[in-house]
Amino acid sequence: MQTQSIITSLMSRHFQDKPLRQVFLVACGGSLVDMYPAHYFLNEQSENLRSWMMTANEFVHAAPRALGASSLVIVCSHGGNTPESVAAAQLAKNRGAATITLTHNAKAELLQWADHNLLYKWGDDTLVTENPMALILSLCVDTLYQVEGFAEWQAFQHGFAQIDTVIRQARAKVATRCAAFAERYQHESLFYVLSSGASYGHAYGFAICSLMEMQRLDAASIHSGEFFHGPFEVTDNHVPFILLMNEGRTRALDQRAQTFLNRYNDKTEVVDARELGLNALPASVVDYFNPVLFYSIMCDYRAALADIRQHPLSTRRYMGVVDY
Amino acid sequence: MQTQSIITSLMSRHFQDKPLRQVFLVACGGSLVDMYPAHYFLNEQSENLRSWMMTANEFVHAAPRALGASSLVIVCSHGGNTPESVAAAQLAKNRGAATITLTHNAKAELLQWADHNLLYKWGDDTLVTENPMALILSLCVDTLYQVEGFAEWQAFQHGFAQIDTVIRQARAKVATRCAAFAERYQHESLFYVLSSGASYGHAYGFAICSLMEMQRLDAASIHSGEFFHGPFEVTDNHVPFILLMNEGRTRALDQRAQTFLNRYNDKTEVVDARELGLNALPASVVDYFNPVLFYSIMCDYRAALADIRQHPLSTRRYMGVVDY
Predict the structure, then answer these.
(1) Which residue of A244, B96, B138, B290 lies most exposed, with the fewest beta carbons within 10 A?
(2) Are A108 and A80 spatial neighbours (Cβ–Cβ below 8 Å)?
(3) Do the two domains B3-148 and B156-309 of this chain adopt the same fold?
(4) CA distance A188 to B226
(5) Which of B50, B234, B314 is most worth mutating to test chain A (most A CB atoms within 10 A of its CB)?
(6) Which residues, listed in sequence order, are joined to residue B98 by a DSSP beta bridge?
(7) Alpha-carbon Rg of chain A, whole angstroms?
(8) Which residues of chain B does A209 touch, with a Cβ-Cβ cutoff of 8 Å?
């Protein structure tokens, strides 16, 4: 992928004298959600390279002490003019860090603070490997590989080569399910979204972006592992659960939630990465591709919900409408 | 505090030959919530020491590669027999890490995997500096100080010496507010809890433990900085918000949420650490004491709510009642 040359370039220039030791993933809302798989990957796989994932305004107001010349700061903003994200990239440059920005806007303010910018593609006709979540993951896989070596780098390339085909087939498979989901849950006002591992970020993302922001519905994400240590006490039939079941190491956590929900809730929608074919990917790296699959699949779920509720996904009452 | 001698002992024994490079904070539910301030502190203040905060079952199923002899794993479990937490401590020992456990049960299974155990005090008549949140923070402050030096160590000692007095006065101040809150919101079914910085973990904790687990109420936490990037679209008067306003660096994020909520929501309960006297603590470390204050204050809020709703805080329908 195109990410490799960016990292190679940074390694031979910016990080030649001062080794890369920290990666900061900084954004807001949906763009921040796209960073979770990369953050989870670095936390799980790196020997020494540190990783942070921070909402941009917290990064600006409470920047970690370690931020400096040994840092790579990756900032993503779809429109590229989100003030907090622009301020974060500026702060990163002021502290001597290298910056990679990702945006869909070639004239974004963000670009003035970018050592490298990835102008990504967007829309239903693009490949997921061209979208931010996979690109940021790929940037971090390449970074880890070049900084400290990473035995599964090649397996990742296989995964990136396979994922779009898996997703295309999976989307065809869920089309009727999305319609049935929308039909059944169109009058619900609150949803819980569960997942674990690299996909927890997307459970959060589906709650805050797809349901709260785009559908004005109440929602909350719950980590499948945390479910049994508090949240599950609310379980009965008053609320639907969406369970994003991972293929890979944390699948057991999701399965445990499924078993419980099967017994105590009649409104559980299971989206199972294994059943949707993700197990075609190399087992050593499959964990990190779950959220890439879930992102595409859940876009179809939310589109069906928006359609039946006659609440277009672009409707806003505050964002970009009023001052705040 | 008693934490210093534990760290000193580990440094001169376990970590003498293999320097301490990673701290893993591992627990479930309320105990995991208690770890957030320490994790946030290390992320913000350490030059090199890495920190992870993980729900125990994810730690067990997807243990990070860096876990090993250079790791300190801190595991907390109130009853000390939570299977996932016991398994996490066992895994840590099997991987050669040093372990510190915290529990309220002197006969806990957890103890068999502990290099050091802190048997903490609990209950309304104890000091917060004797409870897990402050103890874990203190352990990590002492760790950072001994591993790489930390200029604000003494300021932290001042903070620990002051915090119980601040909290005692703050609790007296909010007594009537708690009763009014309970009276006004007793029939609500859903709450959003907002905060930022070191207190975000407690916003999450109040949602999942106090409201979902102990009151069987729907709830979700929202980071004040993320609020404007999706979640705020649900704002109107159908749902109450609880805003935990920090003293310190991220206060601006909470204030921005407050300004918005003042305009678009009639049911916002503000709990303001500055107004409650937390600014008496040293400014360089005050950020990390916000959640310690909020924990105590919000215990009084939830007690008032439990009382008026006639739903005792100890009521459970699943936890410890059915198999799962």
Answers:
(1) B96
(2) yes
(3) yes
(4) 24
(5) B234
(6) B72
(7) 20
(8) 230
Q: Tell me the sheet residues that pair with A53.
A: A25
What DSSP string describes A123-136?
STTS-GGGSHHHHH
- DSSP, collapsed to helix, strand or coil, labels residue B167 as helix
Which residues 6+ apart lie within 8 Å of A280 measured at CB? A162, A166
pLDDT per residue as tens digits for the range A138-174: 999 999 999 999 999 999 999 999 999 999 999 999 9
Would you give the distance in Å from CA B166 to the centre of its chain?
18
Cβ neighbours of B218 in A, within 8 Å: 190, 218, 220, 234, 239
B156-309 adopts what CATH topology?
Rossmann fold (3.40.50)
For A25-63, the DSSP string reads: EEE-HHHHHTTHHHHHHHHHH-SS-EEEEEEHHHHHHS-
Domain ranges of chain A: 3-148, 153-309
Within chain A, where are the H helices?
Answer: 3-12, 29-33, 36-45, 56-61, 83-94, 132-148, 153-185, 200-205, 214-215, 251-264, 290-309
Reported ipTM:
0.98
Integer Cα distance of B78 and B103 in angstroms: 5
Taking the C-alpha atoms of residue A119 and residue A96, their distance in angstroms, rounded to an integer, is: 23
CATH 3.30.450.20 assigned to B3-148: no
Q: In chain B, which among 195-254 make CB contacts under 8 A with chain A? A: 196-197, 207-209, 212-214, 216-223, 225-226, 228-235, 239, 249-250, 252-253
A293 neighbors A163 (Cβ within 8 angstroms):
yes
Nearest one of B41, B43, B23 to B291, comparing CA atoms: B41
Distance separating alpha carbons of residues A257 and B23, to the nearest angstrom: 28
CATH 3.40.50.10490 fits A153-309, yes or no: yes
Residue B28 has pLDDT above 80, yes or no: yes
Q: Enter the tokens of residue A137.
A: 């993951």
- In which band, very low, low, confident or very high, does the pLDDT at B124 lie, cut at 50, 70 and 90? confident
Which amino acid is located at A123 in the chain? Answer: G
For chain A, percent of residues with pLDDT exceeding 90: 99
Question: How many C-beta neighbours within 10 Å does residue A107 have?
Answer: 9
Residue A31 CB: number of other CB atoms within 10 A? 26
Flag whether pLDDT at A243 surpasses 80: yes
What letters, b where the CB count within 10 A reaches 16 and e where it falls short, cover A288-299?
Answer: bbbbbbbbbbbb
> B249 and A61 in contact by Cβ < 8 A?
yes
Q: Pairing relation of β-strands B22-27 and A268-272?
A: unpaired
User: B266: which 2 tokens?
Assistant: 């009639």
Q: Are strands A98-103 and A241-245 parallel, antiparallel or unpaired?
A: unpaired
C-alpha B23/C-alpha B15 separation (Å) is 12
d(CA B114, CA B137) in angstroms, rounded, equals 18
How do residues B240-266 score in pLDDT, each as one tens digit? 999 999 999 999 999 999 999 999 999
Q: Say if B32 is an interface residue toward chain A (CB within 8 Å).
A: yes
Which candidate, A62, A54, A293, A66, places its Cα nearest to that of A173? A293
Task: Give one word for B216, left, alpha or beta, with left for phi > 0 and alpha for psi -120 to 50.
Answer: left
